[in-house]
Structure formats: structure tokens, C-alpha cells
Write a structure and sequence with these properties.
- Chain B: One of its GO terms (molecular function) is sarcosine oxidase activity.
- The complex is a heterodimer of chains A (183) and B (1002).
- Chain A folds into two domains: 82 residues, 2-Layer Sandwich (Alpha-Beta Plaits); 77 residues, Probable tRNA modification gtpase trme, domain 1 (Gyrase A, domain 2).
- Chain A is 22% helix and 33% strand.
- Chain A has four helices and ten strands, in the order E-E-H-E-E-E-H-E-E-H-E-E-E-H.
- Chain A has a five-stranded antiparallel β-sheet. Chain A has a five-stranded antiparallel β-sheet with strand order 3-4-5-2-6, covered by helices on one side.
- In chain A, helix 1 crosses helix 2.
- In chain B, strands 10, 11, 14, 15, 16, 17 and 30 form a seven-stranded mixed β-sheet that branches. Chain B has a six-stranded mixed β-sheet with strand order 43-44-45-42-36-46. A six-stranded antiparallel β-sheet of chain B has the order 48-49-50-47-52-51.
- Classes of the chains: A alpha+beta (183), B alpha+beta (1002).
- At the A-B interface, strand 6 and helix 4 of A face strand 10, strand 17 and strand 41 of B.
Chain lengths: 183, 1002
């Protein structure tokens, strides 16, 4: 009998956990506040139905809704300009008490992608990035060093980081320094 | 050439890799794997430092983190200079440069040793006694001229580098199910059994190589393997597991709440040529579900007279240097002990060819296996005996020993030797347990404090829990590894052969001697030079609690935190006071366990990353146009725009004059902005502001005043109504986060019924103030046909439109008193919008102005700045703004307080204007105001200057102030006493320019 042996394969960068950090292209962002019932109505108009489970996100095509608090969601759309979308959503929600505020320019977004992403974030964020503790789809308001951020894991090795625009240079510099600090 | 005392084989050093290093400029060699201490000992060098207070020659006491004496400075050049490193932990590398400390001019001849001669003056409580001594003697200020300079010179150990630290430091937040501190047999067994469950395990150890005491053990056999080989195999198996993180050279220095443990990992200090792009150290903040403490035990010195000479060390240290580093720490040794374990050191040293001159055992008898073995080996043992003195200056040369008979010592005898090993027993390392708030329990049987009930999810195993048999330790470790993660416990027995099973309670306190107790120095705390008689003196002077004794004598207060001294200090106090050890208490174990560099604590928070620097969208333009910036909170704001040759004064004058003459542009982006949205938005604002909002029409603005609950002004700003249910609220720059938190607090706790939500939009909008008589002319071509005429858009109105195609909220507001607009565009368009306005402004030579000109112009109009003209004690009426308070409103935050007697009392300080009699004199902000031109000391101040500027437009100085009953003093002359003389000024209304206010309606 011939035994089949599977040889282990090792890449040239084995062991190095790298990540790319890129600035997100301009998108439409809204802070949506209201009851869960209103959120469901909003979901019909927006496409992505806001999650009611804490710290979870929902994605439908180019639309994402991130749960940030019991009555607070961050809406992100990459397919429409903020003004048009704002008007459409306001029309759909006209009868509902709520708050929809355009924050497209308030935030700067970063995509942190790669096996080393969690390591970069762990330099300044006290959360546990194990997939069991911070699963795909989880989002939360937290900190990176001295900056307040929103952090969202949209794929196993992909994080979206959003901060207020004036904190973006700090965040970018922090992540660059964190990359230098990795083993 | 390797050191003469190096053994031909054995130990963890690599004899194929010699390294050269210098100590105090002299070259030596050693091997990779050596510490500075072991390499120096291989050359017979014992003198490593001078003691803190008496400058006594000191050597190496221990072999690890507890070392109190052998503190050195390592200099890598270029500012890489680290003082107070324990030579026993400094790993050798090629080219290491180490220096001794606390000596001048040289280690062997140290002038400071004169302190030893005046030591009676430097006894316990020396510092405190100088405080209480005479302050003056014959005109000399004793304290200021003598004591303080002397104490300051003597204070502190080692010298800090004067250069900036060129290294950088990493931080890491980490999470695990099990953190194991200490990699001795207990830690290895626990980590292995915990890792088998798949749980995330972090194992850390302060040493470069894992294994703890197993590295010193050349007798025990575990599961058929020599102890060190077993350790190596266990570590290899752990390293192969993906769920295990091994952290060598990593000190667990602090145990905090909720199982947060601080670890400091040394990454590059052991490397000959570190990559300086790599971080030097990494601070780990580990949040562990469970913590296993396997921190071992520290051997206690014996407190006999002159027990501090170089060449006197702990017995275990002698064994470590022999077995771990292959170095004979001496050639003729006297062993003084009160515990069996020292016999193991004696046996190992004897086997290596070291002459055992005498084993002096304080105990009358010992039946432990080790002492039996020592007897069988023919080692000379003297029981019921002690050392009463030692000789030698920079190295011990001999001891005097004698037989203990009650409190006396008889049959004195002198022995020549070059090494003394001492062992007073073992003190479990309960530092981390104690930091975790676990209560310690005193165990009479072992003279030690042991971990009691843990306060957090934590377990102590091995020697730190008072367990000393190897087989038992391994069994406990294995069990703990399972138990902490709530796995079914499967006990495992390790086959252990050759374990010493050494026993004994050891001894605490000072050993007996027949010498004049006032003349001998028997050291308890080696690092702080505290002797047995200091502690005895403290008890005689009335101190009863160890906390007081500690502070009075400074025992246990050095950088080693009393690792080797605490129990002996307690023993002495206990004997002196005739009270039990637990009744005297134990001092608190504080973080850090060993010193941690400031660099590590700072981590990334230095230089550019010290704090976020917030810049507006227009910052780059301002920087390119000569702006000087000022810090406002974390923001950089353009302060003034300096043209060639202009100083600040000239620039501000020009900016003010041209703005009032023509127009000026101002970056107001940092103003706080909050979007208040919802059907109850107006009602919410009614409750948060003094003003009434219900009747404010859509498209209108109003100045809002916000009070705290005490009725004092906390913030102000213009609020615009964008829609029935949508308000655009502005706040001061510095107050933005505070106002948001204040609003959110009330909304959530007091008014949860209101349907309204708050969103910070500070950073959504770039805000450009266009001010001046030609502001409309500047703006009109850019607003895409929007009608901004005075009729359509009067003062305090707003319109939503577009600015060159991008969304715009346009406010007609003024903080200068001129015709003014504030253009809000989405922040990414801020720079382009500014440049477009600037291009328009160039047509008639408008200016860009900064915060200083803004301050001057608003003061010319008497507009207050919250936080400058108010200080948290100013009511709306004090500020002359009673008009902003809605009298008919049922309630608003602060309303009730406004009726308090103190807030309606006459003669409150009110905001007024001040005009100096000399128009060129600009008052100092903060200067006190009095009624008397030549006030006597203690004269009551009527108020103080809050804002003061030179107004170019008025050609004179202006000021605002708060003055008692100020509005009733119009025309009165008051005085501002300054070092150069009193300045007289007249009280006026706080408005200096365009008194009728016609300009802003232009």
C-alpha cells in the first residue's frame, strides 16, 4: 500500500502578518436616530435593514447600516450622493419621529485589510479581536490611542475604521507607527 | 580568555560564542547566555556598586530581579543610557558598556564613603529630624543652605540621561483565557495543561529563557528527563501550539482590576546591534479570564553584622551562578543558614571543587535529607551557630562565627573565606497576588505570608503559594491549568526523582551577636541602607505599625520594594515590640514589581502622537499664508496672519482695521456644532437654554445662553432653525464636547420622554466668517443666485442653498459688529470655498484674520467670551445679559438657582468696560482692581480685568472687567496696582465701538 503524504506548503513571507491601510473614497454617511420600529421603516427605504442586535451591522449591496447604540445607527452608502439619498430617506420617514443627519464629511474612513490588521489595532484599541469575540459583522464605538473611532469588521481580515476628520491624521500616523512596532 | 572561575562545562551559556564587554571602562569577556553579574563573577569581580546612604562597597546579593545592590548604568551611546539596571538581569552582548553608580571618583575609592563615619547622624528618621531641627543657627539657614541641598544631592540613585530617548516603544492590548506568570515548574505545568484545552494561553517570564528554578537544578529528573531538558521539551511543545503565546524577558509588573495585568517586554536591550526601527520595549495590557501566578519565592538574607560586603550572597544565587552560568562565585565558602536549601548549594559547590570552609546552621538540629547528605559528604557543619561579623573591604575576607546560647554568642572563631552564602529561608513572591487585592494569611510554620482567598479569578501555585516539593508543584500546576478553565480535572502525576524536598521555616529578624549594637551595621534593606538598629530605633521612638516603621526608616521603599528585606524588617519589629508578626502588619505591595521605563508607559504617546492635533480644512491655506497658530483645546487655530516684516501687533491692527474698513475672512470651523432634530427639538432647547425657542421662525437665528444647574453661564452660541424640527446649534470651540455631554446627560436622565436626538456636526461643516461692510459684495457672486440682500436676509437669519454648486447653510451673524455672514459648506469643500471667497476679497484687498483680531473686534463691541470674561461664577445678569433669559418660561436648567439669595445679592461682580486714563496703557488680563491708588497689603479687590487689548480702530486701549456693583459705578475711576505703579481707569459700558450698533445691519 502506498501512503499519500501531503507536504506542508510555506510561503516566502510565512510568519509575517501584514496589513494594508487605505483611506476610504468619499461616501454618503448619515447618523440615523430613532426607535427600532422607525429603523425598520428606514430599512425599507435604505435597503440595508438596521440590525437591532447590539454592535451588529447589515449590508445590502452598496448600503450598510451599523448599530452604534440602542437608537443610533451609522448609515453608509457608496452608490448615491448624500443630498439625493437624504431627501429620499426623509420623505420615506416623514411621518416618523426620528433624526437623520448628514455626516458624510464629518468622518474619514480607513480600510485595514490583511492578516496583520488586528495586530495594528491592538496597539491602541483595548478590544479582543479574536473572531469569536469580534466576529465578522460586528461594529462598535471604541478608541485607537487617544482618538475615538467606530470600528467594523466586514470580513475576517478586514476592518473599517471611521473617525472624525480632524483625527484622521493622528489615526493614520498611529497606524503607521503601529506597523513599525509589529514583530 | 574566559574568566578563571568559569567551569569547563555546564550551564546555559554558549561557550562557542564569547563576547567582550566593559565595566567601568575595563574590558572583560563572557559568553552568550551570561548576565553582566555572572560574567563579572567569572573574573572574580564582586565589587559592583556603592550603597545609597553610606556608600559602602557592595557586590552581588542575588541572581535575579530581587537584586538590591548591583545596580548599574548601561550606556549604548546616543542617549541610549539606562540607569539602575540590575546586573543580574542585564544580558551580555558584544560591546556592552556598563558603569557602576553612586561613587566618585571611582568605585574602589569613593569619597562619599565618608558618610559611613558620620553614620550616627544618618540613622532612622534622619530626613524627618532635619525638618524639625533649628531653622537658623547664627544667621545661617540650616534647612535652605545645608540640609536641603545635601539631601537633594544625595537623593535618587543613578543618573537619568539628559538626551531625548531615541528609542520607540510599542504597546499591545491582548486577551487570553489563561495568563500564566512565571515559567518555573509550576508555570510550565499549568500552561501545558491549560493549552491542551485549546484556550488562549499567554506565558510570561522575566528571564530570557523559560524554566525558572529548573535551570539551576542538576539533580532532579522529571519523567525520565533531566530537569532542564524536561523544561526545554515542555517549552518546545508549548511553542508549537498556535494558541500559546510565549513572552520571555517579560516582567509582569502590575495586577489591576478585572484581571488586567501589565507586562513589560524587553525586546532589544539584549541585542548587540538592535535594529533601531524596532521598538525597544512593549507594554502589554493583558485582559485575562483567569490568571495563574507561579512567581516563585525569593530567598531571605540573614541579618548579621556586616552582612553586606561584596562576596556575601544568597545561597540560591551562588547555586544559580554555578549551575546556570557555570561560574564559581568563590573558592572558599562559608555557608550561613537557617534552612535546609542552603545545603544543596553547598553540595553543588563542593562537587564543583569549591572548598566548603564551614556550614554555620543557626538551628540546633536539622534532619532534612539535604543536611544528612551534606554530613555524609563530609562537609564541616556547625549547628546552633551564627556569623557575628565579617572582614574585608571591597571583598569579604573572613567571618567570625560563634555558638548561639540564648541571646549570647560564645566560642568565637575566625574563618578565612572569599565567599559567604546565606539563607534565612524563603519568602513567597506574593506581590502580584497582593496587588490583585487578595488578602494574605500569615503562616507561622513557614514564617511567611501566603496567598489567602483570591479577590479575582486567579490562583497561586508553586513556591509563591508556599509549596516547595517539585512533584507537588508539578501536580498542582497541571491541576490549576485545568481547573481555571473549568475543565474536568484529570490529575497527572509526574515521575520525579532526585527532588530535594528541602524543608524548614527559616528565620526572620536579626541574628544574635555579642557586639555593641550601636556600633554594628547588620543590613536589612540593602538598597536603602536600613540596618537592624534603625528598625529597633524606630520601635523605641514609638512606631508600632510596619507602615509607620517603613516610612520612618525607609525600609522597603527603594526600587526593589523590599523584596529581600520586608520579612526581616517585620521579624525585627516583632522581636523588639514583643508582638506577633501579623499584628504588626505587612506593607502594601505596589506596582511596578520592578521598575518600568517611562518610555514603555508612554508607548506611542510621544512627539507627534502625544495628542491628536486637530486641524481645520482651511489649515493648509492658512499655513501657506503666514498664519501663526494658537492651541485651543486640541485644535490649531490661525492666530494672526503675518505679512513680511510684521510683528503680531502690526498684523492684528491691520486685520482689524481692514475688516472694519472693507472685509475680512475668518476660519470659524472649530466652533462646536450640534444638530438637534426631532418633533420636540424646540422644547428641548427651551429647557437647556435660558432663551425661548418656540417662536423662533424657520430661517431665523438667535443667540443662546446656556447655564449650568448652579445658574452660572457655561456656554453660548448662535442657534439657527433649519426646519420646524431641526436646529443648527453652535457652541464655543472649547465647550463643544462639554455642551454635547451636558445636553445628552439631560436628555437621557431628565427628559427621556422628549423625542429629540443630538448629533455632533462640528466636523461636518467648514465655517467661513465673512465680515465687514463689503462682506455681501464678496459673497454674492458665489452663492449661485441666492438673494442675500438685507431685506431678504436680515441680521440673525439663515438660508439653505448652494455655494458654487455645493450644499451651503448660510447664516447672517456677526461676532465683529460688522455686516457679517457665516458660510457653512461640507468640510471637504472648505478649502475650495475659502479660496473662492479669498479671490473675491482680493478684488478690494480684504484680509484673512485670525483669532486675535476676532478677540479684539468682539471686545470693541463688548461681546463676551465664555471662559475668558466668565469664570463659572457669572450669571446672565452679572454679564449684563438678563435680556437673554426668558422670564415667562416655566423652567430651564439653572432657573431655580437664579433666584438664590446669593445670585440676586447686591454688589455682585458685573461685567463692565474699562478705559485707562492713559490710552496707550494696555492692562494685564487677570490684574486686580481696587478703589485705592496706593492700596495697603490686604486691600479688598473689587474685581479683575478679564479682557484687554489695543484697539487700532479706536487708537487706544480697551478692557473688560468684572467689578463689584460695576454697572452702578459708571464713570468712577478705579485703580489697577501693578509692580510699576497704580494704573487708573474709568468704568464704562462694555461697548467701545459703534455704540448704536448700526453697522451690523448694513
Amino acid at each position: 500500500m502506498v501512503e499519500t503524504v501531503t507536504l506542508a506548503r510555506s510561503g516566502s513571507l510565512a510568519g509575517r502578518r501584514m496589513a494594508s491601510v487605505t483611506e476610504l473614497a468619499p461616501v454618503a454617511r448619515f447618523s440615523f436616530r430613532g426607535s427600532e420600529a422607525t429603523a425598520i421603516k428606514l430599512g425599507e427605504a435604505f435597503g440595508a435593514r438596521p440590525a437591532v442586535e447590539p454592535c451588529r451591522s447589515s449590508v445590502a449591496g452598496a448600503r450598510s447600516a451599523l448599530w452604534l447604540g440602542p437608537d443610533e445607527w451609522l448609515l453608509i452608502a457608496t452608490d448615491q450622493d448624500a443630498g439625493t439619498l437624504f431627501a429620499a430617506l426623509e420623505t420615506a420617514l416623514a411621518a416618523e419621529p426620528h433624526s437623520l443627519v448628514d455626516v458624510s464629511h464629518r468622518n474619514t474612513g480607513f480600510d485595514i485589510v490583511g492578516a496583520g490588521g488586528a495586530g495594528l489595532l491592538s496597539e491602541g484599541c483595548p478590544l479582543d479581536f479574536d473572531l469569536a469575540a469580534f466576529p465578522v459583522g460586528m461594529c462598535t464605538q471604541t478608541v485607537l490611542g487617544k482618538a475615538e473611532i467606530v470600528l467594523w469588521r466586514f470580513a475576517p481580515l478586514s476592518f473599517r475604521l471611521e473617525c472624525w476628520r480632524s483625527f484622521a491624521p493622528y489615526v493614520a500616523d498611529f497606524l503607521a507607527q503601529a506597523a513599525d512596532n509589529q514583530d | 580568555m574566559s574568566g578563571a572561575l568559569r567551569l569547563p562545562r555546564g550551564g546555559r551559556i554558549d561557550r562557542n560564542q564569547p563576547v567582550r564587554f566593559t565595566f567601568d571602562g575595563r574590558g572583560y569577556d563572557g559568553f552568550v547566555g551570561d548576565t553582566l553579574a555572572s560574567a563579572l563573577l567569572s573574573h572574580g569581580v564582586h565589587l559592583l556598586g556603592r550603597s545609597f546612604k553610606y556608600h559602602r562597597p557592595r557586590g552581588i546579593l542575588a541572581a535575579g530581579a530581587e537584586e538590591p545592590n548591583a545596580l548599574v548604568t548601561v550606556d549604548r551611546g546616543g542617549g541610549r543610557w539606562t540607569p539602575n539596571l540590575r546586573a543580574t538581569q542585564v544580558e551580555l552582548y558584544e560591546g556592552l558598556v556598563a558603569k557602576s553608580q553612586n561613587r566618585w571618583p571611582s568605585l574602589a575609592f569613593d569619597v562619599g564613603a565618608v558618610n559611613s563615619l558620620v553614620s550616627p547622624m544618618l540613622g532612622a528618621g534622619f530626613y524627618y529630624k532635619t525638618f524639625m531641627g533649628p531653622r537658623f543657627v547664627k544667621g545661617a539657614k540650616l534647612w535652605a543652605d545645608l540640609f536641603e541641598p545635601a539631601i537633594r544631592r544625595a537623593a535618587g540613585l543613578g543618573e537619568a540621561s539628559r538626551d531625548p530617548d531615541p528609542d520607540h516603544y510599542a504597546t499591545r492590548f491582548a486577551h487570553c483565557e489563561v495568563l500564566v506568570v512565571g515559567s518555573g515548574p509550576a508555570g510550565l505545568a499549568a500552561a501545558t495543561s491549560a493549552a491542551q484545552s485549546g484556550a488562549r494561553v499567554i506565558l510570561c517570564d522575566e528571564n530570557p529563557v523559560f524554566g525558572g528554578s529548573l535551570a539551576d537544578d542538576n539533580h532532579a529528573v522529571i519523567d525520565g528527563m533531566a530537569a532542564d531538558a524536561w523544561a526545554a521539551a515542555t517549552i518546545e511543545a508549548l511553542a508549537a501550539r498556535p494558541n500559546v503565546t510565549l513572552l520571555p524577558r517579560t516582567q509582569a509588573f502590575g495586577y489591576y482590576n478585572h484581571n488586567l495585568i501589565g507586562l513589560n517586554q524587553r525586546l532589544t536591550d539584549h541585542l548587540a546591534q538592535p535594529d533601531h526601527r524596532a521598538p525597544r520595549e512593549r507594554l502589554w495590557q493583558v485582559r485575562a479570564k483567569h490568571v495563574v501566578l507561579a512567581t516563585g519565592a525569593i530567598e531571605r538574607p540573614l541579618v548579621f553584622p556586616d552582612n553586606d560586603r561584596p562576596g556575601i550572597m544568597l545561597a540560591s544565587a551562588g547555586r544559580t551562578f554555578l549551575n546556570r552560568f557555570g561560574v564559581k562565585p568563590g573558592t572558599r565558602v562559608v555557608v550561613a543558614t537557617a534552612h535546609d536549601s542552603a545545603y544543596r548549594a553547598a553540595l553543588d559547590l563542593a562537587a564543583a571543587g569549591v572548598q566548603i570552609v564551614r556550614i554555620v546552621d543557626l538551628r540546633e538540629s536539622s534532619e532534612g535529607a539535604l543536611s544528612v547528605a551534606a554530613e555524609r559528604a563530609g562537609l564541616p557543619i556547625m549547628r546552633g551557630a551564627t556569623i557575628v561579623g565579617t572582614s574585608g573591604t571591597t571583598r569579604v575576607r573572613g567571618v567570625r562565627i560563634g555558638r548561639v546560647s540564648g541571646r549570647h554568642v560564645t566560642d568565637l572563631e575566625s574563618l578565612a573565606c572569599d565567599l559567604v552564602l546565606m539563607c534565612g529561608g524563603w519568602t513567597p513572591s506574593v506581590h502580584l497576588f497582593s496587588q490583585s487585592r487578595g488578602k494574605l494569611a500569615y503562616d507561622e510554620g513557614s514564617n511567611s505570608f501566603l496567598p489567602g482567598t483570591p479577590a479575582q479569578d486567579q490562583v497561586s501555585i508553586g513556591a509563591c503559594a508556599g509549596t516547595f516539593g517539585l512533584a507537588q508543584i508539578l501536580r498542582d500546576g497541571h491541576r490549576a491549568g485545568h481547573a481555571v478553565i473549568k475543565m474536568a480535572v484529570e490529575d497527572r502525576d509526574f515521575a520525579v526523582v532526585g527532588d530535594d524536598e528541602s524543608t524548614g521555616a527559616g528565620f526572620i529578624g536579626a541574628t544574635p551577636h555579642d557586639r555593641d549594637p550601636t556600633q554594628v551595621k547588620a543590613f536589612v534593606d540593602f538598597q536603602n541602607d536600613v540596618t537592624a538598629k534603625d528598625i529597633a530605633l524606630a520601635t523605641r521612638e514609638g512606631f508600632r505599625s510596619i507602615e509607620h516603621i517603613k516610612r520612618y526608616t525607609t525600609t522597603g521603599m527603594a526600587t526593589d520594594q523590599g523584596k529581600t528585606s520586608n520579612m526581616n524588617a517585620l521579624g525585627i519589629a516583632s522581636a523588639e515590640l514583643g508582638r506577633s508578626v501579623p499584628s504588626i502588619g505587612l506593607t502594601t505591595f505596589r506596582q511596578p514589581y520592578t521598575p518600568v521605563t517611562f518610555g514603555s508607559f508612554a508607548g506611542l504617546s510621544r512627539d507627534a502622537l502625544f495628542d491628536p492635533v486637530r486641524e481645520t480644512a482651511i489649515h493648509g491655506w492658512a499655513a501657506a499664508h503666514g498664519a501663526r497658530f494658537e492651541d485651543v483645546g486640541l485644535w490649531k487655530r490661525a492666530w494672526f496672519f503675518s505679512r513680511a516684516g510684521e510683528d503680531m501687533h502690526a498684523a492684528v491692527n491691520r486685520e482689524c482695521q481692514i475688516t472694519r474698513e472693507r472685509a475680512g475672512l475668518f476660519d470659524a470651523s472649530t466652533l462646536g456644532k450640534i444638530e438637534v432634530v426631532g418633533p420636540d427639538a424646540a422644547e428641548f432647547l427651551n429647557r437647556l437654554y435660558t432663551n425661548s425657542w418656540t417662536k423662533l421662525g424657520v430661517g431665523k437665528c438667535r443667540y443662546g445662553l446656556m447655564l449650568n444647574e448652579a445658574g452660572f453661564i457655561m456656554d453660548d452660541g448662535v442657534v439657527g432653525r433649519i426646519a420646524t424640527d431641526r436646529f443648527h446649534v453652535t457652541t464655543t470651540t472649547g465647550g463643544a464636547p462639554r455642551v454635547m455631554a451636558h445636553m445628552e446627560d439631560y436628555l437621557q436622565t431628565e427628559f427621556p420622554d422628549l423625542k429629540v436626538w443630538l448629533t455632533s456636526t462640528t466636523e461636518q461643516w467648514a465655517v467661513i466668517a465673512v465680515q465687514g461692510p463689503r462682506a455681501r459684495e464678496m459673497l454674492a457672486p458665489l452663492v449661485d443666485g441666492l438673494d442675500i440682500s438685507a431685506e431678504t436676509m436680515p441680521h440673525m437669519s439663515l438660508q439653505v442653498g448652494t455655494f458654487q454648486g455645493v450644499p451651503m447653510r448660510l447664516f447672517r451673524v456677526s461676532f465683529t459688529g460688522e455686516l457679517g455672514f457665516e458660510v457653512n459648506v461640507p468640510a471637504d469643500y472648505g478649502r475650495a470655498a475659502w479660496e473662492a471667497l479669498w479671490a473675491e476679497g482680493r478684488k478690494f484687498d480684504a484680509v484673512a484674520y485670525g483669532t486675535e483680531a476676532m478677540h479684539v473686534m468682539r471686545a470693541e463691541k463688548g461681546y463676551i467670551i465664555v471662559g475668558q470674561d466668565t469664570d463659572g461664577t457669572v450669571t446672565p445678569d452679572d454679564a449684563g445679559m438678563a435680556w437673554a433669559v426668558g422670564k415667562t418660561k416655566p423652567d430651564f436648567v439653572g432657573k431655580r438657582s437664579l433666584g438664590r439669595p446669593d445670585l440676586v445679592a447686591p454688589n455682585r461682580k458685573q461685567i463692565v468696560g474699562l478705559m485707562t486714563d492713559d490710552p496707550r496703557t494696555v492692562l494685564e488680563e487677570g490684574a486686580q482692581i481696587v478703589g485705592d491708588p496706593t492700596p495697603a497689603r490686604g486691600t479688598h479687590a473689587l474685581g479683575h480685568v478679564t479682557s484687554s487689548y489695543f484697539s487700532a480702530v479706536l487708537g487706544r486701549s480697551i478692557a473688560m472687567a468684572v467689578v463689584e456693583g460695576g454697572r452702578g459705578r459708571m464713570g468712577e475711576t478705579l485703580y489697577i496696582p501693578m509692580p510699576s505703579g497704580s494704573i487708573s481707569a474709568k468704568i464704562v459700558k462694555p461697548v467701545f465701538y459703534d455704540l448704536e450698533g448700526v453697522r451690523l445691519n448694513g
